[in-house]
Amino acid sequence: MKVATRQIKGFLSAIPQNINAVLLHGNDLGMISEYGAKIAGQVAPDIDDVFSVTRLSGEQVSGDPALIGDSAQSIAMTAERRLVWVRGKGTELLSGCKTAFSQSLDSAFIVVEATDTTSRHALVKLFENADHAAAVGCYADSAADLGAVLKEITTRDGISIDRDAAALVIQRLGSDRAASRQEMEKLALLAGPGGSLGYDDVAAALGDSGALTTTDIAMAAADGQIDRLQHGLEKAWSESQNAVMVLRGCQGYFRQLLGASRASQAGTPVAQAVKSLRPPVHFRLQDKMAAQLRVWTPDSLFDAVNRLQDAELSVKQGGGNDEIFAGQALLGICLRRQKSGR
Q: Which domains does the chain carry?
């Protein structure tokens, strides 16, 4: 079965009894890892128990396609079912999963984490079309998704956070689920149970924790300011910022510009289009963003977002310098703004 995005939360909290194999696939490694651990914890009381849990890598499965099925047939000594937890890219797991699915899995549960697949991949289709299996897409969090995680954490600890502070959290953290949750948990510790968080608290805390805001970098690119862009990138790299997180943060900024630009094109006044964005843009940035919208068109902003996504993919594929990939993409956007001549 295919688990739709709106159904994921309910599915993970109560996996149907007929399901004994789940594939987690997509481009958000943090989300895949989080969901994998959540499912594994429901199957095995102790996920580190070697007598009931078998962990396999893509390399192992590629060398022995029968390994997943053989592991699933092994008796769990300390749990009701044998947990087979597989982590790989995707293609190398296909043959092994097909072999496993040809056998009875009544006494086992298979969790597969595939980090290099698309929704059309044969492995995804295998799980979607099997009656006893499910495929869950794990793609980069939207602003709404991050807002939901923030609300979950602050509600849990009884923490109040004002609107501008919440918007800043989402703007700074990008869209990797695991990294975002980690930073939000740090904020919760800072506030303490029943505490509160304001804009200045968030700005100081995330800066001190090394999660450098990408807003300055994105704004420099959108303004066509090469010196500012270079300074922002140098600061990010000197503080060991992750290139993927920088690119994702910039994607978020340009996506907001794109949303406001489309609204403006449809007749909404520019200032109102900016104020209507969700998550809300802090008042300190609204005038600057409005000015940028008078230069950038929806088509050019769409191209900028695609350029940043391509750069992120290049970084993930490896084989080069992550900082160079990120810098070149942002420089290209910056130069495009300069060449507009407006």
A: 2-138 (3.40.50.300), 143-208 (1.10.8.60), 215-339 (1.20.272.10)
